[in-house]
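This section describes the prediction task in plain terms. A model, or a person checking by hand, is given the sequence of a single protein chain and must write out its three-dimensional structure as a string of tokens. No templates, partner chains or ligands are provided. The sample shown here is typical of the held-out split.
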Amino acid sequence: MTTADDVVRVPRVLDLESHDVVLAVDGGGSKTDVVAIALDGSLVAHARGPGTNPQTRGWAEVGPVLDEVRARVLDEIGTREVRTTHVYLAGLDLHDELVAAEAALAHWSEDGGAPDVLDNDLFALLRAGTLSPDAAALVCGTGINALAVRADGATVRYPAIGDVSGDWGGGAYLGNRALWHAARAEDGRGPATALMDAVPRSLGMRSVREVTEGLHFGRIDPGAVGRLCPLLFEVAGAGDAVARSVVERQAEEIVLMASVALERLGLGGAGSEVPIVLGGGVLAARHPLLVEPVVAGFAERVPGAVPTWVTAPPVLGAGLAALESVGAGPDALDRYRAAVLGREFASTAAPIV
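The expected answer:
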């Protein structure tokens, strides 16, 4: 097994008449996609399951989910041989997490092949957004994470495990900030903000105090706090200074995180173009209050930065990387990209016809 850092792509001539396939797996916080792709780039089968972030759910839960979703795809492809398997999961940030993942999926060798590449899902996002060997990728979805890569194989990545690793932001964090500011406005410790009325109203409550007690006593699902992120942007867009300051702070962190990763690799100097691939639900919403300062911030800090938003399913990048690793050419990559972008992924196993 290799990580994405170790992959060396050696061009080779493919037998496009072969019935072999490659498997690509993308597992995030909310969903997991597994696809089988023919060597000519045709999408053969797809299955979807729940999220498989081992950092938050643990391998006791994640392992069986990955096994089951992959098994549905293997059932669909029948006797086709699996040429390679690439697996990209959220939460694989540290060396020990990668080692644990390799051990947890080693039994796939008995049925189609253990993963040849196993790494963080940021590498799938990166591949979906650019072909450049010098680039950065940043995801701002439920959480926030970033990495940068250089043509010689060097990478910079973050632990990305929350406050203890210096992280700031992501949808769950922003929702929490909305509640935090609402609570302080209600009891007088903080400035007035429309969040004080908007937060409890969105949760069907009469006051922030009622929300606080509901969360404390388990009457409200803790996940509801993360879902306050869109409300934060709505209130900010209406002109609320407190909500707007939180959005501005998130933009600053996005620029900082990706820029520092590039700077540590010596990338992004004057006269060079460096793609910065941006993904995740918070960024995909393309709210002007976030987009404009992000674009301006990159222009100021990284000369030649080319911010690129990716809203395609992350499994696009996973599949492109798997195809490239077996020598698939531009036509095959284009065919797979078109298949993914032209199809609404089903929520259950589905052969592609």
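For orientation: The longest helix spans residues 241-264.
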